[in-house]
Amino acid sequence: MADKTTPEDLGMSYILRLVQRYHSSAAQAFLELEAEFKNLEDRSRELVPGKRYQLLSEDEPVNTFVWECEFATLDEVQVALKKMADNPIHTELFEKQMRYIVEARTEIYETIDFKQKTDSTVATDVVI
Helix-strand-coil percent breakdown of the chain, rounded to 5? Predict the structure, then answer.
């Protein structure tokens, strides 16, 4: 992604998260394919590199895998999803990986920034 507006510039950002639960008996095969996705991201100028997480404990089963990436705009999220869908190698890898997937979902989060902006015309001292 070249010369894009950063999330910090806008004061907000969006997290795209792909959550996949796979057959626990297929963990090695699933993760080997995920390594191929990572290699594809590293070689591609179109696909955004995401962070990958393997769940260790939580309400979700531990055979849950998460890929996520942060974007400055919701439009960038949509563009990234379209590029994934339009990339023939990505599609081929996903078709191979699908046989191991029990459940998959796409989540989009908007970050919340609770930082207060100080206005020089507003008193910041509070007396209780």
Answer: 40, 25, 40
Q: What is the distance, to the nearest Å, from the Cα of residue 122 to the centroid of all Cα atoms in its chain?
A: 38
pLDDT band at 124 (very low <50, low <70, confident <90, very high): very low
Global confidence as pTM: 0.76
User: What is the total residue count of the chain?
Assistant: 128
Q: Looking at the domain assignment, is residue 39 inside a domain?
A: yes
Q: List the domain range (segments joined by +) for residue 91.
A: 7-109
Residue 33 lies in a domain: yes
Task: Tell me how many domains the chain contains.
Answer: 1
DSSP-derived 3-state class of residue 102: strand
Q: What does the block give as tokens for 73?
A: 């705009």
Does 35 reside within a domain? yes
User: What b/e sequence results for 3-13 when a residue is b if at least 16 CB atoms lie within 10 Å of its CB, and e otherwise?
Assistant: eeeebeeeeeb
Give the span between the Cα atoms of 51 and 89, in whole angstroms.
19
Number of H helices, E strands in the chain: 4, 4
